[in-house]
Amino acid sequence: HPFLLNTQTYTPRCYGITGPISEDLPHEADLIQTRKLIDSLKSYGVFEDDLELQHREKVVRRLEFLYKEWLKEMCFSLNIPESVTENVGGKVFPFGSYYMGAHSKGADIDALCVGPGFLERKDFFTSFYEKLRAQQEVKDIRVIEDAFVPVIKLSYDGIEIDLVFARVAQKSIPENLDLLDDKLLQNMDEHCVRSLNGYRVTEEIMRLVPNIFNFRLALRAVKLWAKRRNIYSNKLGFLGGISWAVLVARICQVYPNATVSTLVIKFFKVYSMW
Questions:
Q1: What is the DSSP-derived secondary structure letter of residue 132?
Q2: Residues 155-182: tens digit of each pLDDT
Q3: How many CA within 13 A on the CB side of residue 180?
Q4: Which CATH number does the domain housing residue 232 bear?
Q5: Secreted among the record's keywords (predicted)?
Q6: CATH code at position 171
């Protein structure tokens, strides 16, 4: 009906708890500034080349292979039925800045190992630790089990890795396991919930930004700024990686059509007034 068509109003998509501040489209000058920003980031060696990225992917695949192999070994040692052992699966989920595509050159990789409910947490920090320590590529491996989020830290073939562990109430871990399903958290112990949090938060952030490419570049720029001013560290009382990511993501939400250069400007303008 013509009358209905004329009275329809455009409702912008709301990515956060409030609508956008501005939906202005970028001007040519904004695009030029963004290209200059990218060139500046390159000059600081922020981006890895293709070989370095492929090496990271290879390391993650290798760790997942070792983890799945260890799960089957544990099944045999626990006399788990063969039908369960063959389908036990197992999955390693990268998270944090590497998973978001906003990691800097030489940065570590955070990864979550998800296992079945019949495992004990201590098995991961003893038996799997020993398996990793036996690998030729592994150096400087250590367990920090009394941390807020217990972790195995190691260097694998030159890449720093932080491994956390969570078990879910299932006999097998399929490749398509949805860790955002809140049902998985029911009756889960506190340490496993904390271990899951890193991946869940990273995934939620990526789903809640309007343009993932712009988000990644803006986050890289802000992180470079923070690191060069020595205020990038939650251990020292400043903001850590995930906190900076949340702040940048919110700016992306309220300026959904802005270019990267505009997002960085708005980041400092908005938060300077908080």
A1: H
A2: 999 999 999 999 998 888 988 999 999 8
A3: 9
A4: 1.10.1410.10
A5: no
A6: 3.30.460.10
Residue numbers annotated as active site:
97, 108, 110, 162, 223, 232
Strands 159-168, 151-156: pairing kind: antiparallel
pLDDT in tens, 10-44: 455 677 888 899 999 999 999 999 999 999 999 99
- How many other β-carbons are positioned within 10 Å of the β-carbon of residue 5? 7
Q: Which H or E element spans position 120?
A: none
Rounded distance, CA 63 to CA 40, Å?
Answer: 34
> Are residues 238 and 115 both part of a single domain?
no
What does the DSSP 8-state code read for residue 110?
E
Q: What is the pLDDT of residues 47-73, one digit of tens each?
A: 988 899 999 999 999 999 999 999 999
Residue type, 151: V
